[in-house]
Amino acid sequence: MEVYLLHYLLLQSGGQSGVWTVSVIILSIGTWVGRVGPRPADGELALLTSPRERLETVRQVLSEVPLIDGHNDLPWNIRNFLHNQLAEFDFDRDLRQVAPWSKSAWSQTDLVRLRQGMVGGQFWAAYVPCESQYLNAVQLTLEQVDLIKRLIEKYSQHMQFAASSREILEAHGRGRIASLIGVEGGHSLGSSLAVLRTLYQLGVRYLTLTHTCNTPWAKSSSVEDDDEDGGGLTTFGEMVVKEMNRLGMLIDLSHTARATMRDALRISKAPLIFSHSSAFAICNSSRNVPDDILKQLADNGGLVMVTFYNYFVKCGPQASVSDVAEHIYYIRNLIGVDHIGVGGDFDGINKTPRGLEDVSKYPELFAELLRSGKWNVLDLKKVAGLNLLRVLKQVERVRDDLRTAGITPLEDLPDSPDTIGNCALDINSVQRVTEV
Ligand SMILES: [Zn+2]
């Protein structure tokens, strides 16, 4: 117990200097033996006074509940730096000491620091650039999925592939980082529901509907010129959302245009996520989520995983861990703690907040939340991972319900825009030749 609880009670009883002395002595003993006793119970306000106590509590929390981050772009850096040659990649070394990582402003991730940061689950982004749309986007995406799986295999002492809420908890229970795959950008589908289904079969568990380009069926925030200009999703885009519901794949709205967000929120039967976005009211980047959408997201049961890029946190090159906490406080005040997670976007950003420089620093963010004196342990657990687990479970439940209801796969449209471009065989025009 007890040291903490006693201290808490003494503080509550307030006042007399004798009491304070007792309290200080007890705390000193706690510190002397290297710990200050168990953390406060789940619903208890965490009135922890020192940074050390706060970090101690956070570490306890993150050992009980996996900290699940929504977005990490390491796989794209492995493509960039090493052409996906994993033999040349030492993920278990401190990459701050290893070129070319040591020289890059875009590198913030390795196993040493993931462990320090107590990361329990990570969505690894299978991202390929928009420039590959209508070209080889599907192939490049498959190569990124393959890369992530090979990475997990190579470091199976530390990482474990996960494709469900149950598997995340299993991996965490074994002390491995639950490793999930998210595809960032609808252009990776080649406008094909068959590709979507195949990606699901390969273990992909979220699709970000767009990256920085429009797809033929969804609008991106990066090319949005008139917010109210028509719908965000075409009929095919709505089919993508429905098929994702049927499969049990998370729908990610980071990077999408507001019209796309609204359409997806209207169509989806399952909760949606923003895997790496923050609050628009604090920094008015189109990558952040405006209040009206946040409110709809709460009605939908979904989740915004607050992101750390300085330009989305403070709309400028400088930010700090407390600025990230401000986004979390704001969203909590608006829609409640049940709809918040974290999506650092490490390895996809080149400006990180002071105090949140790399994947080793997550505990600092949670300690910062505790510092406000308004957060209890259950709140921390929700933001760390319980909210994401709840959303994923709900997505799995919708999938099961649709299966029970006998909903069958949606058929592709015969004239997919990706198969009639100059760089694709128009399969519908192929005539059967005489067979030998
Ligand atoms: Zn992104």
From TrEMBL:
CC terms in the record's Gene Ontology section: side of membrane
MF-aspect GO terms: metal ion binding; metallodipeptidase activity
GO BP annotations, alphabetical order: proteolysis
Keywords (A to Z) from UniProt: Dipeptidase, Disulfide bond, Glycoprotein, GPI-anchor, Hydrolase, Lipoprotein, Membrane, Metal-binding, Metalloprotease, Protease, Zinc
Keyword DNA repair set for record: no
Catalytic activities: an L-aminoacyl-L-amino acid + H2O = 2 an L-alpha-amino acid
Keyword Zinc included in the entry's annotation: yes
First-listed, main subcellular location of the protein, grouped into a coarse class: membrane
Mode of membrane association: Lipid-anchor; GPI-anchor
Cofactor: Zn(2+)
InterPro entries, sorted: Dipep_AS (IPR000180), Metal_Hydrolase (IPR032466), Pept_M19 (IPR008257)
Pfam family, one: Peptidase_M19
Cell compartment(s), UniProt: Membrane
Subunit composition and interactions: Homodimer; disulfide-linked.
Family: Belongs to the metallo-dependent hydrolases superfamily. Peptidase M19 family.
Protein name: Dipeptidase
Protein's organism: Temnothorax longispinosus
